[in-house]
């Protein structure tokens, strides 16, 4: 092998290593600086409970069909089917072994808003951190405090059942680079305090877009299709369009929407069904002002 050939091969290897290093740096898990979670004081447990219900924590992490107070046992295990495989919701009870009882606020906050696990690994976006990225540090702290008051469970959730290449967590760094942002999903004109609250609840805590917005082949939201309806992740039917011009709720008033979230009844006296049953149960626990804010935001969305 000649000198020039060796130099060429060495150059190619160096370029490949440099490219791999750059790719790793761009896609590595990125937690908040420690200061982000400091100085928050004692959690406001009443607000933490409201964050819990608005965020739908029980819907995924309690046992399917759990009644009443059993919804507060966050044992995990629920299967979440998707085109990429089946995800299993983890135990997030305060159990120190099976749950997250030995986590810190920073570890919990980085998981919920940055998709970074306790050991610094990427988490799958079946956990809607793409929406929770908009949560304030105060709300995360209050939620964390409230979770510590709930019953412990020793249940160990099964691992995710994913085929290649979706079982490679390193690839999630590229997904985050493309799709993870805490910027508003849409621009709402003349936003007052009520609209701002509604946007925070719908785009963030309520993570409504996770079901109501169609996705591309990589699992990111389709541009310009916010809340425009999407295939049912469980495989049957569709999640409806909930924009102002939709056939589902386009003719509803803001008070109709707020009433539906509280009672589960449509203006035509039909009842909530499907995946929305759990969501409506959660929304019914919020103060009326929050349901009114959600309704105001949905009515203020730009027409498609």
Automatic annotation (TrEMBL):
Cytochrome c domain residues: 43-151, 193-302
A GO molecular-function annotation: kinase activity
The keyword Iron belongs to this UniProt entry's keyword annotation: yes
UniProt organism field: Sinorhizobium saheli
Coiled-coil portions: none
Record key words, sorted: Heme, Iron, Kinase, Metal-binding, Transferase
PANTHER family cross-referenced by the UniProt entry: ALCOHOL DEHYDROGENASE CYTOCHROME C SUBUNIT, BLL4482 PROTEIN-RELATED
InterPro entries reported for this sequence: Cyt_c-like_dom, Cyt_c-like_dom_sf, Cytochrome_c-type_DH
Protein name: Diacylglycerol kinase
């Amino acid at each position: 092998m000649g000198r020039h050939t060796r130099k060429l091969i060495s150059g190619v290897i160096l370029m490949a290593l440099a490219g791999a290093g750059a790719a790793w740096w761009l896609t590595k898990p990125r937690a908040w600086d420690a200061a982000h979670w400091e100085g928050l004081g004692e959690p406001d447990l009443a607000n933490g409970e409201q964050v819990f219900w608005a965020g739908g924590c029980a819907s995924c992490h309690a046992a399917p069909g759990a009644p009443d107070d059993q919804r507060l046992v966050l044992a995990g295990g629920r299967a979440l089917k998707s085109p990429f495989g089946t995800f299993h919701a983890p135990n997030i009870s305060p159990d120190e072994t099976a749950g997250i009882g030995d986590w810190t606020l920073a570890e919990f906050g980085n998981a919920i808003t940055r998709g970074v696990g306790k050991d610094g690994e990427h988490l799958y976006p079946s956990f809607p951190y793409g929406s929770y990225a908009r949560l304030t540090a105060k709300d995360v702290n209050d939620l964390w405090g409230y979770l510590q008051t709930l019953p412990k469970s020793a249940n160990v959730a099964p691992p995710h059942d994913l085929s290649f290449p979706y079982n490679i967590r390193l690839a999630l760094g590229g997904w985050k680079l493309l799709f993870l942002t805490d910027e508003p999903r849409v621009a709402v004109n003349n936003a007052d305090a009520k609209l701002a609250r509604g946007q925070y609840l719908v785009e963030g805590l309520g993570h409504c877009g996770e079901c109501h917005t169609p996705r591309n082949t990589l699992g990111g939201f389709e541009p310009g299709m916010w809340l425009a309806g999407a295939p049912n992740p469980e495989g049957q039917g569709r999640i409806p369009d909930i924009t102002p011009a939709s056939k589902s709720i386009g003719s509803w008033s803001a008070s109709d929407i707020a009433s539906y979230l509280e009672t589960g009844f449509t203006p035509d006296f039909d009842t909530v069904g499907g995946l929305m049953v759990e969501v409506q149960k959660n929304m019914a626990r919020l103060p009326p002002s929050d349901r009114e804010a959600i309704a105001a935001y949905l009515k203020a969305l730009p027409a498609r």
